[in-house]
Amino acid sequence: MTTDENLLNRVSGQWTTEALRTMQEILSGSSKVAITAHRSPDGDAVGSVLGLYHLLARKGIKASVVLPDRFPSFLDWIPGTESICFHSEQSKESEEIICSADALFCLDFNAPDRAGSLADLIVSSSARRVMIDHHRDPDSFADLMISDPSCGSTCELICDWAIASGNWSNVSLDAAKALYTGIVTDTGSFRFPSVSAHTHSVIAALLDLGLKHSEVHEATFDDQSLSRVQLHGFALSERLKIRKGAGIGVIALDLADLERFEYVSGDTEGLVNRILGIRGIQMAIFMRESEKGKIKMSLRSKGYVDVQALATAHFDGGGHKNAAGGILRSMTMPEARLKVDEVLGQWFNT
Ligand code: 5GP
Ligand code: MN
Prior knowledge:
CATH topology of the largest domain: inorganic pyrophosphatase (n-terminal core)
Structural class: alpha/beta
Helix content: 40-55%
CATH architecture of the largest domain: Alpha-Beta Complex
Number of domains: 2
Low-confidence stretches: none
Radius of gyration: 20 Å
Bound molecules: guanosine-5'-monophosphate, manganese (II) ion
Order of helices and strands: HHEHEEHEHEEHHHHHEEHHEEHEEH
Number of strands: 12
Mean pLDDT: 96
Largest sheet: 6 strands, parallel
Strand content: 15-25%
Shape: globular
């Protein structure tokens, strides 16, 4: 399929002629290419690294993919996951890949510290760095920075590169599956405001390649363990607190709750959006004790309510206006709940 004018004209403005040229120059001048993404990788992180990996493979470039740690098992089905090196499990091999690379793609994160244990290596690497991302306020740490916060996913930005650089014919079915997964997960199945007519055009172009979108949805969303579904039921019926006047819903799960439902990484994914789906709720907060004294926060909001600002100011985090995350450290869950109450009280009085 050839890319039509409409598709080409609407690619992210970040892919300027100069950016495309720099990308080309970096790719052709590198013999060792590495690709990485943020810690606790989500669908967009895994989709973009594997999408680019398959795309480059078709161009005859064998890249190595390194991630700081594992992603949830509902993404295991994406073609190419078996080739990923996890720093948390294969530290030597991962470090070797980053240190010896002459081109390093940093996908779906806007600052080295978002890559967790890989942060220092990314900064000290002598490779030419390319950042492709859609989070606000990026650190300037790469030689080529493609940063488009108006775009719903990094996978869409990778598709845009393929379209604008004449590489669409190098999008294999495996690449298409990975890229579709990133777009569908980061847009909440095409519901967030960042979804544009162009997003749908990109999806149409992926379908034209032979992608079966229903298979992606089934593999990603309809293959849950019974204990995970029961954990969601428990969280919503027993652990949800609504601050009615303020339109805020909070779910907090401690280690004991998680153990009871045989929690594995990724099992609480989507819970925060269930809170946001409740009538009258403007802000949803999900708190999970990830280890003793450490609480991972996920925040979502509707419309003008800016959870990124809240996460940045109070929870050592960041993200996007309507979807952000952060961490509370050295606190029990009851202490964390109090802290959140206090912060929300102040936030809405200011
Ligand atoms: P989630 O709630 O799905 O973990 O994350 C939602 C959004 O917030 C994502 O875009 C993610 O990049 C961002 N985010 C999550 N956790 C953190 C964090 O600890 N620090 C920063 N800066 N951003 C985060
Ligand atoms: Mn993303």
